[in-house]
């Protein structure tokens, strides 16, 4: 019986939907059940993700049997020390199933480095290019032979991870990683990562949020078609496109079937997409936090809350004031209503994918499918202009389905349709510049803030994130106006200065930056800021490639940290 049928039966029997929502996956160790609950609520580790990333020392059946005996012996209230001993006996430390991997196509001195005029930035770009070797992972054969003993989803080909606590692949992160890898002339690494994603679509019908079973029922911003476009543009590997075009179509079909919503306006009905994950229980990787949060809402609302948190994670913006629209206090995470919003960025990503699919099919000689995707894009463009575009403000906005109106708060995602080429009026790039000016965004010298609200969530002020800089910078760069193009460059310069300054001090790249006070590693949210970092490195290389003849490090050499100073001096002298 499918879960959907099960849900209908329960609702027919008058049971609440709270009881009916299925778990994030079937595993009674990694996704739901008493073992997961007891271990995570005992908070044996500072980060809940650590436990669900451990592999098993023996079969799941044996682990569950031994746990059952332990639970019965202690009347289901196992002392913390006993739980610790149990985990040490039956689980292995995180990362045992992965081995470090140096990409075979990594080589010294990729061409794009020659475009960088500032010698300090060139030295730094070489350092970033080297970081790919530290972020490479390959799965051991045991993940394939004993998949039930690990939360990892098997990937045949090696891949680049974000870094820090994120030792598995992540879907939307990988787009900016791939852009960086292509500049580093590592097309075969990109092809392997693409193949992993295509294999996931063939197996599950979609790409999960990340490479763990507990992420299976939620996806991430859909950028697979764009990844394929970048790879084919770089390599002209049309055979690979031809072989996989059906799988790309299958992934877009997942969003059509499972994430579609109808919105009425002016007597007309429009079809758009949303993030929506109708699966229950706390997120396994943040279990204790989700359980604690659930205590702040009525018991009947807990399953809904947990489903909305998963939808927030699917959006990539976990978490943000963008989604905190449902409660009396918009600063509380319990106000989250992700699935009640029609997001500007999600629909722009899908609009772009439909255009790319139309182009792909034309290139492959299939005019019928090319026309079908052209029509889908045209329908979405009309829907976005009717529901999300605001003529007065000159930007697109998330639409609140419950309130029946746009959320007019500032988010960089409001300009995603510009980045995605999903507009019909060429003047929108210059309108976007005015929108940024009206919101005083250009007064921030260290990066574009994620929002103007400080909720303590990581996808809010004062954090700035690499992908959001890209959405705005490359969106503005589409303008024919020299002034708008100059602002795009200045925003790129600001971001590069922040990345370079922090790297000079810390010898590390970060997933996010705090731009409120001179540029520092970011904060807030559910875990400590992470080093690495895949998409930050990818975007830095993209900006250095695009504006390398103009960008400056903007830092006197003396302000470099002592650990970088000697190396940078020597390398600068050598380069000169």
Automatic annotation (TrEMBL):
<dbReference type="InterPro" id="IPR018232">
    <property type="entry name" value="Glyco_hydro_37_CS"/>
</dbReference>
<keyword id="KW-0378">Hydrolase</keyword>
<dbReference type="Pfam" id="PF01204">
    <property type="entry name" value="Trehalase"/>
</dbReference>
<dbReference type="GO" id="GO:0004555">
    <property type="term" value="F:alpha,alpha-trehalase activity"/>
</dbReference>
<comment type="function">
    <text>Intestinal trehalase is probably involved in the hydrolysis of ingested trehalose.</text>
</comment>
<dbReference type="InterPro" id="IPR012341">
    <property type="entry name" value="6hp_glycosidase-like_sf"/>
</dbReference>
<comment type="subunit">
    <text>Homodimer; disulfide-linked.</text>
</comment>
<keyword id="KW-0325">Glycoprotein</keyword>
<feature type="signal peptide">
    <location>
        <begin position="1"/>
        <end position="20"/>
    </location>
</feature>
<dbReference type="InterPro" id="IPR001661">
    <property type="entry name" value="Glyco_hydro_37"/>
</dbReference>
<comment type="similarity">
    <text>Belongs to the glycosyl hydrolase 37 family.</text>
</comment>
<protein>
    <recommendedName>
        <fullName>Trehalase</fullName>
        <ecNumber>3.2.1.28</ecNumber>
    </recommendedName>
</protein>
<keyword id="KW-0732">Signal</keyword>
<keyword id="KW-0326">Glycosidase</keyword>
<dbReference type="GO" id="GO:0005993">
    <property type="term" value="P:trehalose catabolic process"/>
</dbReference>
<dbReference type="InterPro" id="IPR008928">
    <property type="entry name" value="6-hairpin_glycosidase_sf"/>
</dbReference>
């Amino acid at each position: 019986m499918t879960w959907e049928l099960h849900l209908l039966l329960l609702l027919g029997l008058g049971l609440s939907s709270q009881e009916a929502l299925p778990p994030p996956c079937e595993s009674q160790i990694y996704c739901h059940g008493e073992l997961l609950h007891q271990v995570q609520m005992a908070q044996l580790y500072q980060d809940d993700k650590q436990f669900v990333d451990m592999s098993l020392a023996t079969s799941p059946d044996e682990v569950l049997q031994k746990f059952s005996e332990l639970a019965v012996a202690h009347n289901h209230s196992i002392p913390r020390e006993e739980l610790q001993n149990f985990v040490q006996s039956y689980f292995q430390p995180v990362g045992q199933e992965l081995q470090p991997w140096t990409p075979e196509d990594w080589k010294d001195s990729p061409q794009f480095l020659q475009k960088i005029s500032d010698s300090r930035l060139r030295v730094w770009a070489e350092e970033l290019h080297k970081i790919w070797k530290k972020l490479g992972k390959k799965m051991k054969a045991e993940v394939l032979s004993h998949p039930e003993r690990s939360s990892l989803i098997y990937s045949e080909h090696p891949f680049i991870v974000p870094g820090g606590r994120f030792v598995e692949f992540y879907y939307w992160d990988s787009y900016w990683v791939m852009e960086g890898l292509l500049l580093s002339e590592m097309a075969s690494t990109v092809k392997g990562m693409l193949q992993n994603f295509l294999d996931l679509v063939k197996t599950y019908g979609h790409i999960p949020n990340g490479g763990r079973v507990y992420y299976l029922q939620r996806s991430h911003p859909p950028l697979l078609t764009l990844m394929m476009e970048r790879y084919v543009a770089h390599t002209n590997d049309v055979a690979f496109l031809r072989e996989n075009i059906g799988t790309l179509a299958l992934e877009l079909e997942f969003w059509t079937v499972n994430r579609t919503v109808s919105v009425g306006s002016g007597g007309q009905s429009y079809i758009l997409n949303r993030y929506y994950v109708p699966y229950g229980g706390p997120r396994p990787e943040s279990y204790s936090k989700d359980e604690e949060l659930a205590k702040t809402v009525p018991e009947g609302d807990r399953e809904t809350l947990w489903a909305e948190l998963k939808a927030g994670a699917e959006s990539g913006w976990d978490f943000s004031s963008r989604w905190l629209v449902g409660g009396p206090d918009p600063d509380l995470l319990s106000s989250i209503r992700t699935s009640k919003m029609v997001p500007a960025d999600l629909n722009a990503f899908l609009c772009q994918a439909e255009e790319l699919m139309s182009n792909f099919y034309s290139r492959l000689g299939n005019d019928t499918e090319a026309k079908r995707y052209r029509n889908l894009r045209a329908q979405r463009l009309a829907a976005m202009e009717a529901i999300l575009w605001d003529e007065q403000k000159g930007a697109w906005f998330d639409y609140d389905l419950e309130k029946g109106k746009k959320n007019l708060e500032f988010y960089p995602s409001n300009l995603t349709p510009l980045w995605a080429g999903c507009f019909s009026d060429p003047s929108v790039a210059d309108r976007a510049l005015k929108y940024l000016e009206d919101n005083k965004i250009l007064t921030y010298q260290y990066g574009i803030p994620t929002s103007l609200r400080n909720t303590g969530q990581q996808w809010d002020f004062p954090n700035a994130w690499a992908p959001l800089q890209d959405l705005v910078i490359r969106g503005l760069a589409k303008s024919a106006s020299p002034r708008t193009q100059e602002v795009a460059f200045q925003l790129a310069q600001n971001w590069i200065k922040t990345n370079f300054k922090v790297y000079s001090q810390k010898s590390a790249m970060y997933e996010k930056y705090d731009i409120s006070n001179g540029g520092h590693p970011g904060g807030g949210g559910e875990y400590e800021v992470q080093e690495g970092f895949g998409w930050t490195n990818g975007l830095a290389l993209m900006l250095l490639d695009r504006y390398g003849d103009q960008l400056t490090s903007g830092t006197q050499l003396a302000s470099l940290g002592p650990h970088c100073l000697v190396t940078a001096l020597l390398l600068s002298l050598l380069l000169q």
